Amino acid sequence: GRNPANPAFWWVSDEGEEVKWSFAELGSLSRKAARVLSEACALQRGDRVIAVLPRVPEWWLLNVACMRAGIVFIPGTSQLTAKDISYRLQASKAKCIITSDTLAPALEPVLPGSQFLKSKLIVGRGSRDGWLNLKELL
């Protein structure tokens, strides 16, 4: 009616930046993100994704998108070492890794050792060779 709907998602950064998504917006964005994972990243139901991200809005968006697509979302903190990430990639047989543009350089040295990894997705404004950019694909 007269009152706007409560947000489904409301995120505020340390600097005061806000991201608010209604249920309709979260639904639409998560469908688009699920398509990115299924099409651009070539993932299928049951495939695993490792996300090494700070708690930015895309962390929650990708979590919901994975649920939609039947993809297993494996969260990892930005404090993981290269050895931790290498172990997780091999143990999980993850086919995709998702990280931020600022964390990607630290992850890149361990990625060639992963025999299962097929795609790399970056969250942020920056771009890197060999990485897909989520914002551009959405």
UniProtKB/TrEMBL annotation:
E.C. designation(s): 6.2.1.2
Alphabetically ordered keywords of this record: ATP-binding, Fatty acid metabolism, Ligase, Lipid metabolism, Nucleotide-binding
GO molecular function: ATP binding; fatty-acyl-CoA synthase activity; medium-chain fatty acid-CoA ligase activity
A biological process from GO: acyl-CoA metabolic process
Highest taxon above the source species: Eukaryota
Primary enzyme class: ligase
Protein name: medium-chain acyl-CoA ligase
Organism per entry: Daphoenositta chrysoptera
